[in-house]
Amino acid sequence: MKYILTIDAGTTSVRALLYDKEKEEIIKIEKEPFRQYFPKPAWVEHDAEEIWEKVKNCVLRVAKNIDPKEIYGIGITNQRETTVAWDKVTGKPLYHAIVWQCRRTTRYCEKLKKGNKAKTIQSKTGLIPDAYFSATKMKWFIDNVKDVRRALVDNRLCFGTIESFLVYKLTEGRAFITDITNACRTMLYNIQTYEWDKELLKIFGVPLKTLPRVVSNDEIVGTTKILGEEINVAGLIGDQQSSLFGQGCFDKGMAKNTYGTGCFMLVNTGHDRVKSRKGLLTTIAYKVKHKVNYALEGSVFNAGSVVDWAIDNLGIAKNPDELTELAKGLKNNEGVYLVPAFTGLGTPYWDMNARAIITGMTRGTDKRHIARAVLESMAYSTYDVLRTVEKDGKFKIKELHVDGGASKNDFLMQFQANILRVLLREFNLESTCLGAVFMTGLATGAYKDLSEIKKLIIEKKRYIPGLSIMEIKPLISGWRKAVKKSLRK
After folding, report:
1. Residue 435 within any structural domain of the chain
2. 29: buried, middle or exposed (CB in 10 Å: 19+, 13-18, 0-12)?
3. 239-255: buried (b, 16+ CB within 10 Å) or exposed (e) per residue?
4. Element at 141 (helix H, strand E)
5. pLDDT-wise least confident of 69-83, 109-123, 409-423
6. Is it true that the peptide bond before 320 is cis, omega within 30 degrees of 0?
7. Statement to judge: residues 329 and 208 lie in one domain
């Protein structure tokens, strides 16, 4: 065997990547975007069947002229929390998938927060009641979609996150599973007992029979004939945990930040479940060789999506490079800040009703200020998360591993290093996919252990802080004043 094939099912596109085990590098990538649906303000949906069709197309193209017998396995990394309801018999979705960004269940989550159930949920799952997670999406399906209720009565209803749906399709319905890193993001999975929690299922009204079996990340879960021959399906892992793994953050205290549609920071806390008091999430990092590693996670809901908004909605630039050149046309932000709360604010505020704002504008404000505020918003949001992580975890982060599309932006990364005053290290921009590659390799025997994988992770670039504390203080002060105006709590 020579290759590992990975599916990256993201929020706006799907990709298939072919990894050459002999060269230890990605040799081919195929990508297709898919449609975003916004039926109501703050509602976000995807067509899961379209995602599946795009996945098939990408897999077939990336493996063209490759002998399927040379492929160790097909792994999957995916946008987490996005929830699909489908028919067990036909394999067809019963409604559009509800995306992790969707806020339709906000009012219900607010009711949970006012009662004692919030404490129960956090103690068992490490999560804060929020529309972000899957459980309230499942409840919404049952309460509002006739086809879902009918399938439930007929014992044909399947609930799952994107990787669960894709595995079901790949295996032609033989495998109804989810991996532990996706399960722990549903608000239904107990991260202490490692099982679907009966009390939580009762709270949300989700029947156990509708949920998939939970597996480890380094596990072969079935086989597929998508390329004509039987190929192992293995190495499933949620995108942010996959990034942590692909960055080689195997040791306690190691941290990464991914600059994608949103920004997500994870810090490996080893075998310790660190309970957050500052708005972080306690989550499962990965389960390998029957051992669970935990993480603290901070979530920024809008990051790269703000760049898309500035280009597509405002039209102030034609592409990200042009946006960056506009931002560089100023020496500083001149007091203009953008708070990217388009779908509420995550860590450390967790305000589902917060809304995006631009503050500090004057008659002299032009598109350069907006461009700079857009890029800087990612750095300031990450600043909030990192400082929260340090307070909660009671340790000092000296370096931060970075990846994701926006981490290619030298202007943004240098500004990030400046205000965080920590070393930023870039290893591979495709770390999220590499995490799934490495997991698939562990599951199928391509790699023996973590020490073998760690040797493959080589630093490519670093950013050294360039501002003093006195220079940073007024910048952060301005950011905090802007955030305060955005909050609705």
Report:
1. no
2. middle
3. bbbbbbbbbbbbebebb
4. helix 134-144
5. 109-123
6. no
7. no
Q: Name the domain boundary from 198, 219, 239.
A: 239
**β-pairing verdict for 177-179 and 213-215:** parallel
Query: Same structural domain for residues 347 and 315?
Result: yes
Asked if residues 102 and 54 have their Cβ atoms less than 8 Å apart, the reply is no
Task: Give me 218's structure tokens.
Answer: 């380094």
CA atoms of 247 and 241, how far apart (whole Å): 10
Residue 28: domain span: 3-239
Q: At what angle do helices 469-486 and 367-393 cross, to 10 degrees?
A: 100
Question: How far apart are the C-alpha atoms of 136 and 108, rounded to whole Å?
Answer: 8
In the chain, the number of structural domains is 2
Residues 389 and 469 in one domain: yes
Question: Cα–Cα distances in Å, from 408 out to 272, 392, 460, 468?
Answer: 33, 29, 12, 24
**Residue at which a domain ends, from 183, 207, 239:** 239
Beta bridge partners of 259: 263
Answer whether 314's CB lies under 8 Å from 280's CB: no
pLDDT digits (tens, 9 = 90+) for 175-232: 999 999 999 999 999 999 999 999 999 999 999 999 999 999 999 999 999 999 999 9
Is 454 inside any structural domain?
Answer: no
What's the whole-number mean pLDDT along residues 79-96?
96
